[in-house]
Amino acid sequence: MSETQIRTYHTKDVVRFRKTTEEFGGLSNMAPGFPIVVLGHRIRTSEALYQACRFPHLPEVQKMILSEGSPMTAKMRSKPFRKDSRPDWDDVRVKVMKWCLRVKLVYNWRKFSELLLSTGDRPIVEDSRKDGYWGAMPQDADTLNGQNVLGRLLMDLRRKLQEDPEALRSIPPLQIRNFLLLGEPIPMIMSPRQQEVALVRSDDEGPAQHAFL
Ligand SMILES: Nc1nc(O)c(N)c(N[C@@H]2O[C@H](COP(=O)(O)O)[C@@H](O)[C@H]2O)n1
Q1: Which residues form the NADAR domain (predicted)?
Q2: Domain 7-201: which topology?
Q3: To test the ligand 1 pocket, which listed residue (128, 137, 144, 152) has its Cβ within 8 A of the most ligand atoms?
Q4: Tens digits of residue pLDDT in 32-51
Q5: What is the 41 CA–ligand 1 centroid distance (Å)?
Q6: 128 C-alpha vs ligand 1 centroid, how far in Å?
Q7: What is the ipTM, given to two decimal places?
Q8: Which one of 11, 74, 181, 190 is most buried, by most CB atoms within 10 A?
């Protein structure tokens, strides 16, 4: 993905989201109602997971971010520690975001896939007042400008969902150094359905229960 290119979007042609309560607000990482489980930890939003991934070497900071009730607060709580983000953060953050979106999909398969597919083949744009990197910013009533990296990752995920959904049911760990959550290496993520099959095969008693941190 060429990240640096600024794109212009015409509002009438796109699916855009800003507030999580809007029709396509579920596409936002801030959207509630799309919980995730990683290493047995229940995480409220993909935003909290993404922000926690900045700090694999600081499990206490990760814990604080993940235990926040609101995604916006999780993001705010990470701000004082940003200077201590993993040193390669700028190089890996798009990969990490892509992985977080896939985890969101695996754990919210029906709801998130239906939402993504309902956008058809229209461009998806995070409409942002101040972030022209992950989103695009209004120039006037008809136009948004920005790199729209999040929107483009969502379009990429939508295309894979249209072409080969089963390939999205499990997610290999990212091949980056120190891909850790609360001190443990993040393993392959499997859909709850695949986990149940694996549990039945291993003659276990049933799916694990998860509580929020
Ligand atoms: N501050 C803020 N408010 C919102 O309503 C937003 N949707 C965002 N954008 C999201 O923030 C994440 C990126 O965080 P970093 O700036 O890289 O720390 C990403 O999920 C954006 O979609 N920000």
Answers
A1: 17-162
A2: Tetracycline Repressor; domain 2 (1.10.357)
A3: 128
A4: 999 999 999 999 999 999 99
A5: 22
A6: 9
A7: 0.94
A8: 74
